[in-house]
Amino acid sequence: MCLAIPAQILEIDQAADTGIVSLGGVRRPVSLALIDDADIGDFVLVHVGYALNKISAEEAERTLAMMREIGELAEQAEELSAAQSEINR
Amino acid sequence: MSDLAGQLEIRLDQRSGAVAIGSSRPVTAARVFAGKSPAEVVRQLPTLFSLCGTAQAAACTAACEQALGRQPSAAVLARRRALVQAETIKEHLWRLLLDWPKMLECKAEAMGNINANANANANANGSSKSRGNGKGNAGAGANARASTLALPTAASAMPRVMQAFMALRQAQQAVGDPFSLDEQQAERGAAAEIDSSRLLDLVADQALEAAPADWLHAVDRLATLQRWSEQTGTPAAGLVRALVAQGLAGCGANSVLRLPDSPWQQLAWSLASVEADAFIAAPQWRQECAETGPLARVAAQPLIADLLARHGNGLLTRLAALLVDLAQSACRLEVMLSTTVEGASNTARSWVANSATLEPQAEAISNVDPENSRLQDLGRTAMSASFTASGEPKSVLANKVMAGDTGIDVGADVGMNDGTSPDRDPRLGIGTGTGTGVGSAEAARGLLVHRVTMINGRVEQYQILAPTEWNFHPQGVVAQGLTAIARSGAEGAELERLARLYITAVDPCVDYKLYVS
Question: Where does Mg(2+) bind (chain B) (predicted)?
Answer without folding.
Answer: 464
